[in-house]
Specification:
With 104 residues, this protein is an alpha+beta fold. The protein is built from two helices and five strands. 23% of the residues lie in helices and 43% in strands. It has a three-stranded antiparallel β-sheet with strand order 3-4-5. A two-stranded antiparallel ribbon has the order 1-2.
Length: 104
């Protein structure tokens, strides 16, 4: 996968497809919520997020992708539905910095 594909896949919460591209030294900051340091902490959080996604129907929309060098920025929205009713709606901007091995 290209850096842009890795970033888009992770942003769309298809986490397992990106696991091999996550550095052991990666950091994931969820603004005003938490910071996950290291691959294990990130994978553990991915599993928790996946558990939530199994309880809702999610509609992800990617609005913009900006890629330059080792950085990729993706913004988009996610609508979460349960029993055809909106549980929540999120607008997000994800910033990825890749290392020299093309890992996030």
């Amino acid at each position: 996968m290209t850096k842009t594909e890795i970033a888009k896949t992770f942003s769309n919460r298809e986490f397992e497809k990106t696991y091999q591209f996550i550095s052991d030294k990666a950091e994931w900051t969820v603004i005003e919520e938490a910071i996950f340091i290291g691959k294990k902490a990130i994978l553990d959080n991915c599993e928790q997020v996946d558990n939530y996604f199994t309880s809702v129907t999610t509609d992800f929309k990617t609005l913009n992708i900006i890629a330059e060098g080792n950085k990729v920025v993706i913004n988009g929205t996610a609508e979460f539905l349960r029993d055809n009713k909106r549980v929540s709606f999120v607008s997000a901007c994800d910033v990825y910095a890749f290392n020299e091995k093309s890992e996030i």
